[in-house]
Amino acid sequence: MTATRASRRTVFRHIARLPYSEWPNYDSTPLYDRSSLAAVEEDVRIVASVWFEHDAHESVDEFACQFPLAYLEVTPHDCYSSTTQYEMEQLFRVFLLKELHGWPHETALVEYLQQSPEISEQLGLDSLPDQSTLWRTWNKRFTGNLRETIQKAARTILVKAQNADVALPREPERNLPDRADATSESDPNDQAILDKAGKITDHVSRVVFPAFSLNRGEDCEIPENAYWSLQTYLGLRENLAANEGARSFIFESTRDRTPLGHGHRDQIRDFSIEQSREMYRQALRQLINELAETEEFFRAGIVAIDITEDDPFTGDRTGHEDEIIGTKEKTDEYAYQWATVQLVGNAVPLVLDARPVRKGESRKEIVEDLLNSAEDLVHVDNVLMDREFDSQHILEMISQRGLSYVVPKRMQASEKAQAKRLLQRDQDRYETNRKLHLDKNEWHETTLIYRRKEDSEHDDYRQYSVFMSNRGGGFLSEYGYRWEIESGYRSIKRFMAATTSTDFGLRFFYFAFACLLYSIWRAVDLLVQVELTGEYEHSPIVTADNTLTLMKKQTGIG
User: Fold this and answer.
1) To 5 degrees, how large is the angle CA 407–CA 408–CA 413?
2) Second label for 430, Cα 20 to 30 Å away, from 116, 357, 485, 539?
3) Which of 301, 279, 192, 332 shows the shortest CA–CA distance to 515?
4) Quick check: 369 pLDDT over 90?
């Protein structure tokens, strides 16, 4: 079938209703303008994601001819100063066709255009360029950045078409480096890693940060991106607060104007909790869309839900008792608490969402809220939680969603008695079905798994742990993945700006932004591994400090 005006209208109406995408991207953020090639790459991804889902759109060649480019200002990417026969937009599309087909030389492209008058007509070519004209265009007229954008766009189109079962002229290649970039067949060296990480960090930050917006008026003297640059800078240094950080930022940044500490805090304090969460979720959606271009990322996996504490609060919490609520260990200290849902297991450990924990909120409400966010971003298979979430009402809610769970259970009298019997029999493992009472005559059915700890320091029933699962003991091995969320929290807190403020919105934003920096680090590491080795190993080869240092350069610092 052929694309029609009606089918195109259907596609762009659908794009206009997407809650997390803005098209075209050149005016979505101060980072972009009409000459921004990164905006073009993002637009290709957004449109291609929807375009090939329409039954009438079965040709990648048609997409290359009809993708809207009228807004693009190409003059900065044109190395010729004089007028030529062919417009840059036409040539952009011509070479997009060449990359889609994977032709190594212009001769095959010329032959294709000669044999496809309908394509030439769609391109508006009254006469066809010859081989030498095309060679000079690619090698002399186009900038290197424009050539790279066309290559990236072609691969994105092929991937999205393949996902929609559209016939392809060739298979999309992996995102592997040029042979000239390869140092050897052995593990990549540190310099190769840093070089590749620098390019990827630049791209990822340009994709993710536009999701954050201060909603300021036009003609502001300090560009909006300077605020996110400062927030990133604060995460680079341990225990660096906004005032001190803003003063240092003035000297380390290459920007003409940078925010003052109080001005930065005032902008952040204007965000409501829900606004911060909405921007975070939008940023993660953009990040996941980038990762989805690789074969190594899957939009499915195991998630872990947990609660972490901020540093103990030592000031006066009068008027903030519902927000500074104490610690999980029941000490006499008080602290802000934050809940997260994170991908674990073999997946790249992204923090999918974060939220504050307030006094009076039920654990069921928190879990349901975070699962809603997670399932909106990825396909969730299994949920791992700590024993503070062992409520039967939480487990029933998870089961009704069609999800499996593994949760340790706090030992009551019956579990202690069973553990004592197992100890007498010297039995390491035991499973039994249990019905947990819900309301009236309703019950939740689960399986209790008793497991003896190796090298336990106890000599009584405390040698045993009890877990609950709605899929039997076969899923118990997955609970070991939950440790990743604890190691993730350590890195996240390393990325947090310091503050003594009791402003709840400001505190939460600092935590959420640290989660974002952590997720960017893990995403960059996956992309670098795929680029350099063609596969993903869970142990990172790019350090957190590497990524943050590279982000300094991409956000105008240093």
Assistant:
1) 135
2) 485
3) 279
4) yes
Spatial distance between the Cα atoms of 9 and 316, rounded to a whole number of angstroms: 58
What pTM was estimated for this model as a whole?
Answer: 0.65
Total Cβ atoms within 10 A of residue 352: 26
At which residue do the structure tokens 């050897």 appear? 184
307 beta partners: 339
Q: What span, in angstroms and rounded, lies between the C-alpha atoms of 122 and 61?
A: 10
Residue 116 CB neighbours (<10 A) = 14
Is 558's pLDDT higher than 50? no
Q: How confident is the model at residue 383 (pLDDT cuts 50, 70, 90)?
A: very high
Virtual torsion, Cα 526, 529, 530, 533, nearest 10 deg: -160
Planar angle of CA 80, 83, 84, nearest 5 degrees: 85
pLDDT on residue 492: 87
pLDDT tens by residue, 114-136: 999 999 999 999 899 999 999 99
Query: Is the confidence at residue 393, as pLDDT, over 70?
Result: yes
Query: Could you give the 3-state DSSP secondary structure of residue 468?
Result: strand
Mean pLDDT of the region 477-490: 80
Which of 144, 142, 164, 146 is closest to 47 using CA atoms? 164
Instruction: Specify whether the CB–CB gap between 514 and 182 falls below 8 A.
Output: no
Pairing of strands 404-408, 379-385: parallel
Distance, CA of 291 to CA of 379 (rounded, Å): 15
Q: Which residues touch 1 (CB under 8 Å, ≥6 apart)?
A: 55, 56, 57, 58
Query: DSSP of 233-275, one letter per residue?
Result: HHHHSTT-BHHHHHHHHHHHB--S----HHHHHHHHHTS-HHH
Bridge partners (DSSP) listed for residue 448:
432, 468
User: Quick check: 432 pLDDT over 80?
Assistant: yes
Residue-averaged pLDDT of the chain: 82
